[in-house]
């Protein structure tokens, strides 16, 4: 027969242990961990009198992403954000943080996503360094930069800790601008556009290649013998809506160079209908 003190300790320990069935995966933790943040989903769930659904083993049933939940639970255990190298599902984890009312986790995620990464591009004395956020570098999920941050693609670093990439420095500012703003929004010559396509292929930026195609489409409209202005609205799931305009000017067409026949504009995050205007 167990001594009374050991029985009481065992009962307290059992009461402190909590099982969570998250999307079919069982997580075992403690009441202390789950109530660490007083206004969270878990604190309210455990401290309220409202009955919660449980499975046959008595684990609390929570219909959320079972894989991403481990990062939520680790945050509550440690009180700080600890993510595996190359983690790139910040948006998904932030949605979970919002669902579970973990404001501290949301703040930590925004700070982590905004951390600057140095990239030195070029060769020899022509090298330039760009400071970019992890969030910008992860715009396209199958890109060179994802592999770089994940360690899947070994990229050397300089003495300052910047990643060193031996590519054309004169073109990378277009790549960087696309990663930050989601479109080709700076002036670019037709020859640079062709070279940029090669850079997009090298860096595995498939959506950038589609943007390049849109710009080329606007350039090709210069041969249409009317004064119409053609506008192509480009929208992708992970980027803003960008409008590319042929920007044809009636009466000045013969004097316009190919580089002045289009212009890109970021217009927000909504989908719009394509249209054209003319006389």
The count of β-strands is: 10
Unreliably modeled segments? 7-12, 248-262, 267-279
According to CATH, the homologous superfamily of the largest domain is: Potassium Channel Kv1.1, Chain A
Strand content of the residues, in percent?
Answer: 15-25%
Q: What is the structural class?
A: alpha+beta
Order of helices and strands: HEEHHEHHHEEHHEHHHEEEE
Protein name: BTB domain-containing protein
Domain BTB: 16-85
InterPro entries: BTB/POZ_dom, SKP1/BTB/POZ_sf, T1-type_BTB
Pfam families: BTB_2
Salient structural properties:
single chain, 279 residues, alpha+beta, Potassium Channel Kv1.1, Chain A, 2 domains, four-stranded antiparallel sheet, three-stranded mixed sheet, 11 helices, 10 strands, 38% helix, disordered C terminus, SKP1/BTB/POZ_sf, T1-type_BTB, BTB/POZ_dom, BTB domain-containing protein
Question: What topology does this entry show?
Answer:
Blueprint: H1 4-16, E1 17-22, E2 25-30, H2 31-34, H3 41-47, E3 60-62, H4 69-78, H5 90-99, H6 103-113, E4 116-121, E5 128-133, H7 134-137, H8 144-150, E6 163-165, H9 169-181, H10 190-202, H11 206-220, E7 229-234, E8 241-245, E9 263-268, E10 275-277
Parallel strand pairs: 1-3, 4-6
Antiparallel strand pairs: 1-2, 4-5, 7-8, 7-10, 8-9
Helix pairs in contact: 5-6, 9-10, 10-11
């Amino acid at each position: 027969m167990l001594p009374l003190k050991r029985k009481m300790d065992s009962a307290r320990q059992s009461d402190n242990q909590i099982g969570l069935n998250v999307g079919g995966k069982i997580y075992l933790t403690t009441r202390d961990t789950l109530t660490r943040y007083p206004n969270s989903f878990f604190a309210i769930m455990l401290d309220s009198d409202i009955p919660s659904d449980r499975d046959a083993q008595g684990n609390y049933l929570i219909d959320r992403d079972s894989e991403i939940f481990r990062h939520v639970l680790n945050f509550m255990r440690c009180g700080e954000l600890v993510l595996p190298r190359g983690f790139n599902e910040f948006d998904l984890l932030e949605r979970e943080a919002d669902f579970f009312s973990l404001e501290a986790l949301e703040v930590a995620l925004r700070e982590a996503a905004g951390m600057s990464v140095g990239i030195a591009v070029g060769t020899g004395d022509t090298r330039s360094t760009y400071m970019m956020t992890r969030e910008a570098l992860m715009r396209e999920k199958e890109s060179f930069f994802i592999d770089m941050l994940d360690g899947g693609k070994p990229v050397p670093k300089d003495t300052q800790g910047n990643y060193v990439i031996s590519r054309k420095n004169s073109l990378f500012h277009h790549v960087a601008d696309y990663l930050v703003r989601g479109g080709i929004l700076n002036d670019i010559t037709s020859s640079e556009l062709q070279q940029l396509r090669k850079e997009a292929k090298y860096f595995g930026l498939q959506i950038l290649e589609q943007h390049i195609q849109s710009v080329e489409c606007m350039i090709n409209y210069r041969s249409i013998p009317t004064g119409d202005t053609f506008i192509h609205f480009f929208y992708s799931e992970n980027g803003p809506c960008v409008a590319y305009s042929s920007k044809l000017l009636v009466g000045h067409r013969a004097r316009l160079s190919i580089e002045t026949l289009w212009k890109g504009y970021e217009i927000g995050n909504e989908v719009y209908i394509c249209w054209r205007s003319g006389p």
